[in-house]
UniProtKB/TrEMBL annotation:
Protein name, as recorded: Ligase-associated DNA damage response exonuclease
Species this protein is from: Sphingobium nicotianae
Source domain of life: Bacteria
Enzyme class: hydrolase
Start and end residues of each Metallo-beta-lactamase domain: 3-175
InterPro entries reported for this sequence: MBL, Metallo-B-lactamas, RibonucZ/Hydroxyglut_hydro, Xnuc_lig_assoc
Organism classification: Bacteria, Pseudomonadati, Pseudomonadota, Alphaproteobacteria, Sphingomonadales
Record-listed E.C. numbers: 3.1.-.-
Length: 335
């Protein structure tokens, strides 16, 4: 099977449109890039021209500084890239501003999903199913073992631990872009009105979410709070801070970790996690397979994770599929 359509190719550095010299989510700085969302394995600094949704551009500016030639695109807008190729940005349901990109030329339709999920999320627009000839899908959780429980069940565990151990704080490791804000927003939707405390690395991204219309309720920094006041409170930090010296300042923290990888019990044991929370911003196995069935593409290209199992599943269901050999997708703990 070839590595593309002629006008679109899968290269190690990303998806490439050679006739207009444009890349989708390139792993290296390029002259012209379309970016699906702000996570570091999709959005890099240093591009000459960047096209993305306004929230994604704001996230990139926060992380990498202002881009030299940013072009914001609204959901549903179709942009001409030249040579008869158009791009339409559609909601992906992953994090704030995340988009699928529909590429069209001469009647051929390709969807580049970036990262996505199908479950409701109060912090971002829901995934929009779009018919296509070729579906380029992630496979971060592309194994049958990864079936994520309803988030309500995981939040019940979190709030229950807080109620049972008022003498401790519950320290939740959650990625600073997307996961942390989703947990906060979901807690607010359940009526949790108490102040939630943040590691300093969370502050700017939470403020960005609120600036883009995502209310997060009362937040405060751990650094500005008497440590004894954190007993019986929820504290959110980056996964890298779990077990760090920073945590020693907290009042007997009960360590929790919010990630789809917590579906594998041994991962929690290895990190000494007392409260594993199976919460992910990615599609699980059932969402991946049901999306392929729903969109019914002529061919599925699979990347970003457990490609082999999903390619095998496609073969069993008479769906043409192949794995892409892209580089740079290795941020497992962020999922």
């Amino acid at each position: 099977m070839s590595n593309g359509l002629g006008w679109l190719r899968a290269e190690k550095q990303g998806i490439y449109l050679p006739e207009v010299d444009c890349w989708i989510d390139p792993s290296i700085p390029v002259g012209k890039a379309l970016v699906t969302h702000g996570h570091a394995d999709h959005a890099r600094g240093g591009h000459g021209h960047v096209m993305a949704t306004a929230p994604t551009l704001a996230i990139m500016a926060l992380r990498y500084g202002e881009q030299s030639s940013p072009r914001p695109v609204d959901y549903g807008d179709t942009v001409s890239l030249g040579d008869g190729i158009t791009a339409t940005f559609l909601p992906a349901g992953h994090v704030l501003g995340s988009a699928q990109i529909l590429l069209e030329r001469a009647g051929e339709r390709v969807i580049v999903t970036g990262d996505y999920k199908r479950r409701p999320d109060p912090t971002c627009a829901p995934f929009e199913p779009t018919p296509c000839d070729i579906l380029i899908t992630e496979a971060t959780f592309g194994l049958p073992v990864f079936v994520h429980p309803p988030i309500a069940l995981e939040l019940d565990k979190l709030v229950g631990a807080l109620v049972e151990r008022q003498d401790r704080c519950v320290l939740v490791g959650a990625y600073a872009l997307g996961k942390a804000q989703r947990i906060i927003a979901e807690l607010r939707a359940r009526g949790f009105s108490d102040t939630i405390y943040l590691h300093g690395a969370m502050e700017k991204m939470c403020a960005l979410y609120e600036a883009h219309g995502v209310p997060l309720g009362p937040l405060a920094l751990v650094a500005d709070t008497p440590l004894d006041d954190l007993r019986g409170k929820i504290v959110i930090c980056p996964p890298s801070a779990l077990g760090d010296r920073w945590t020693r300042r907290l009042p007997d923290p009960l360590q929790a970790f919010a990630s789809g990888w917590m579906r594998v019990r041994q991962r929690g044991v290895q990190r000494a996690i007392e409260l594993p929370l199976v919460i992910s911003d990615h599609a699980d196995w059932e969402e991946l397979t049901s999306t392929i069935v729903e969109l019914a593409p002529q061919e599925t290209w699979i990347t970003h994770g457990r490609e082999d199992a999903l390619v095998h599943w496609c073969g069993l269901h008479q769906i043409r599929a192949r794995a892409l050999d892209l580089v740079g997708y290795d941020d497992e703990d962020e999922n």
